[in-house]
Amino acid sequence: MNRILTCIGCPMGCQIEVTLDENGNFVDSKGWSCNIGKRYAQEEVTAPVRTVTALVNVTDRSEPLSVKTAHPIPKGKIFDSLAEIKQVKVQAPVHIGDVIVENLCGTGISLVATKNIA
Ligand code: SF4
């Protein structure tokens, strides 16, 4: 069984063909142009992950704070993570890289600020 993926590692969007065995386990891949794509192909069919970006409210400010997960989280945790992020309200000042939520949705990954708010 084969799966065709589009690599999300860079704008080139290489088409990667992944070969799976009869149990759906990764066997091999081809079509990637670098090791990022090679790693992405294996992860995507075994334990897919994504970096989540979002906006959170800032107390007494109309402008929201942009945030992202410090590392990719399991794809299956994205909706629950967004629900958790929706409940968050931060107090200025905030600096790029500040941890806004530790252990987001039990993933062990932090949610961090991606802009400064004075
Ligand atoms: S395989 Fe490498 S070059 Fe191709 S899209 Fe992925 S990251 Fe970009």
Compact description:
The protein is an alpha+beta fold.
SSE topology sketch:
Blueprint (H helix, E strand, L loop, with lengths): L1 E5 L8 E6 L5 E5 L4 H12 L2 E2 L2 E6 L6 E5 L3 E2 L3 H9 L2 E2 L8 E3 L9 E3 L5
Parallel strand pairs: 5-8
Antiparallel strand pairs: 1-2, 2-3, 4-7, 5-6, 6-10, 9-10
Overall pLDDT score: 96
If you compute it from the alpha carbons, what radius of gyration comes out, rounded to the nearest whole angstrom?
Answer: 18 Å
The percentage of residues in β strands lies in 25-35%
Write the CATH homologous superfamily of the largest domain. CPE0013-like
Structure in words:
The chain has helices at residues 35-46, 78-86, and strands at residues 2-6, 15-20, 26-30, 49-50, 53-58, 65-69, 73-74, 89-90, 99-101, 111-113. The chain is of the alpha+beta class and 118 residues long. The chain has two domains: 2-47; 53-113, CPE0013-like (CPE0013-like fold, Roll), CATH 3.10.530. The strands form three sheets. The protein has a five-stranded mixed β-sheet. It has a three-stranded antiparallel β-sheet with strand order 1-2-3, covered by helices on one side. Strands 4-7 form a two-stranded antiparallel sheet. It is elongated and about 55 Å long. The protein starts with a strand and ends in a 5-residue tail after the last strand. Iron/sulfur cluster binds next to α1.
Give the tags.
single chain; 118 residues; alpha+beta; CPE0013-like fold; five-stranded mixed beta sheet; 10 strands; 33% strand; binds iron/sulfur cluster
